[in-house]
Amino acid sequence: MSDRVESAHRNTEDPAPGTRAPGTRAPDGRFAPSPTGPLHLGNLRTALLAWLFARSAGARFLVRLEDLDRSRVRPGIEEAQLADLRALGLDWDGEVVRQSERMDLYAEAIARLDAGGHLYPCYCTRAEVRASASAPHGISAADRYPGTCRHLTAARRADLERAGRRPSLRVRAEGARIAFEDRLLGPQEGEVDDFVVRRNDGTPAYQLAVVVDDAAQGVGEVVRGADLAGSTPRQVLLSKLLSLPEPRYAHVPLVLAPDGSRLAKRHGAVTLADRRALGETPAEALAWMARSLDLAGPGERPSAAGLLARWDPTLLPREPAVWSP
Ligand code: GLU
Is residue 303 helix, strand or coil? Predict the structure, then answer.
C-alpha cells in the first residue's frame, strides 16, 4: 500500500495563512466522491473549491473514491467522475484511492473501538429505528438512534441471533456533545447519537471509513459540502476515540435548484455530459462556477489555474448558489 501513514505533524498545529514557517506545508486537501452517479455542477463546484483551498496554499490534493456501498456503485461512473475533474482542469497528487481496497484499515479501526469498549451490536431494522426516533438535533430525526439495543442482555442478544437477525455495530456515544471550529461556518456544536460504524452486512459505514482514510492519507483540511456539516460531530468523536489527528473542516455552500432544494439529477441538464449534449464546453461550465463564486464576470472564461490566481478564501460567498440554466 502506497499511502503515507504519518500525518499528525501537519494536521494539528497549522498556522494561519501567511504565518507559516518557511519549509512547512499547508494541510493536504481532498475530494471524495461516491461513484454512485454522475457528478452534477454542485458536486463539481465543491471539488473546485476543495482544489482551490489546497492548491492556493501549496498543499497536496488527493482524490478518494468512496465506493463501499456496493449496491449503489455503478460501472463506468468512477471513470466519468475522474474525467470530469480533468476536463475542468483539476489535478491531483498520487494514485486515486478506492475505499473498497482498504477494508483491512477499517477492520483494524473497528477492532480498536471494540477493544476499547466503545461498540455494541444493534439488531434494529431501519424501519424500527425510524418508528422509535424522536428529538432531532443536527442529524435528522429519522437517522437518530434512540438507543434501543444499548443495554440488551446477553440472553436477549442470543434470542435475536437465533431469530436470524444480524447486528450492525454502533458507537456508545454516551450523548457526547462535540464542538468543532469550521473555517466557514464558525464554531459548531452537536450532540452525537449512537451511530453505526459497521452495517449488518459487514460493510464499514461512511462515518468510520472517512475518518480512518483522512487520517491515514494525511488529509489536514476537509473541504466538502455544507450538507455534511451535521455528520462532523460524529466524525470528530471517532477521531478522538481512535486517537487520530483531527482535520480542520470547511463546509462550503451548496448549489441549489431554482425551487430552493439541493441541486440533483432530476433538475435537468446538470452534469458535464448533459451540458456537452447541449453544446456547452467544460470551460463554460467552469465559467458558471467561477461566476457563482464571484471569481469571474459575465463573458469571462478563466481556467482553473487562472482561478487560482484570483482565489481568496476569505471572499468566498457564504450563501448557497442557485443554478438557473
Ligand atoms: N463520499 C461523500 C459524498 O459523495 C463525501 C464524503 C466527504 O467529503 O466527507 O457525499
Answer: coil
Yes or no: say if 28 and 221 are a contact pair by the CB < 8 Å rule. yes
295 Cβ inside 6 Å of ligand 1 = no
Taking the model in full, what pTM does it have?
0.90
Is the four-CA dihedral 305, 218, 9, 93 of positive or negative sign?
Answer: negative
Bridge partners, residue 180, by sequence: 188
Distance CA 141, CA 138 (A): 8
Residue whose C-alpha cell reads 464576470 in the numeric block: 297
Q: Domain 3-104+206-322 falls in which CATH fold? A: Rossmann fold (3.40.50)
On the question of pLDDT at 14 being above 60, the answer is no
Per-residue pLDDT tens over the stretch 48-75: 999 999 999 999 999 999 999 999 999 9
From CA 250, how far away is CA 50, in angstroms rounded? 9
Catalytic residue, candidates 93, 265, 278, 284: 265
In the chain, what are the domain boundaries?
3-104+206-322, 119-198
Q: How many residues does the chain have?
A: 325
| Domain 119-198: CATH class, spelled out | alpha beta
Q: What is the DSSP-derived secondary structure letter of residue 16?
A: P
In angstroms, what is the span from residue 3 Cα to ligand 1's centroid?
Answer: 19
